[in-house]
Amino acid sequence: MNVGGVRIPVYNVVVIVVAAVAMVLLTLFLQRTKRGAAMQAVAMDPEAATAVGIHVGRSNAVVFAIGAGLAALAGSLASPMLYVSPTMGDSLGIQGFAAAILGGFGSIPGAIAGGLGIGVIGSFAAQQFQGYSDLVTFVVFTVLVMVRPTGIFGEKTVNRA
């Protein structure tokens, strides 16, 4: 496909659409269902969640199942674009973790912004610094985290003893 003079492979558009649909469904699940609210309550304070009648073990099992499903979806979408090997998830996992930190933990819009940021920085670095693109990406990432440690959409927390 040609969009504004930029050639985009059709499969990449499919990946973007499927990822966007998964993100919207996850956001709706977390914000609009009782189970989603319960899972967020367990993440914030398991003891208080237990006190109001939320089954923490069941909630953790659902979170694990959702996470495993999303990981399977991501792996099946990424494998046609990458050389499949037992260690292919290493670099993707590190980049995903960096995107979550850059966006701010606990923020889905932050994770999206962080992922886009890491992707744009990585693409620019790959064009300008070929063999050192990962190094440049993580140097820029490190500087950004030093400037804003809570991430783009992260909340400032105050610890009072």
In short:
This protein is mainly alpha-helical. The protein is built from 7 helices and 2 strands, in the order E-E-H-H-H-H-H-H-H. The chain folds into 2 domains: about 1-80, no CATH class; about 85-160, no CATH class.
The low-confidence runs, each spanning 5 or more residues with pLDDT under 50, are none
The rounded distance between the terminal residues' Cα atoms is: 57 Å
| Outline | globular
- Tell me the total number of β-strands: 2
Strands of the biggest beta sheet: in what spatial order?
Answer: 1-2
Q: What's the structural domain tally?
A: 2
Instruction: State which percent range the strand residues make up.
Output: under 5%
Backbone structural class: mainly alpha
Number of helices: 7
Overall pLDDT metric: 86
Q: In percent, how helical is the residue content?
A: over 70%
Radius of gyration: 18 Å
Question: How would a textbook summarize the main sheet?
Answer: 2 strands, antiparallel
Task: Sketch the topology as an H/E string, one letter per element.
Answer: EEHHHHHHH
Detailed description of the structure:
The chain contains seven helices and two strands. The chain is mostly helical. It has two domains: 81 residues, no CATH class; 77 residues, no CATH class. A hairpin with a 2-residue loop joins strand 1 and strand 2. The protein starts with a strand and ends in a 14-residue tail after the last helix.
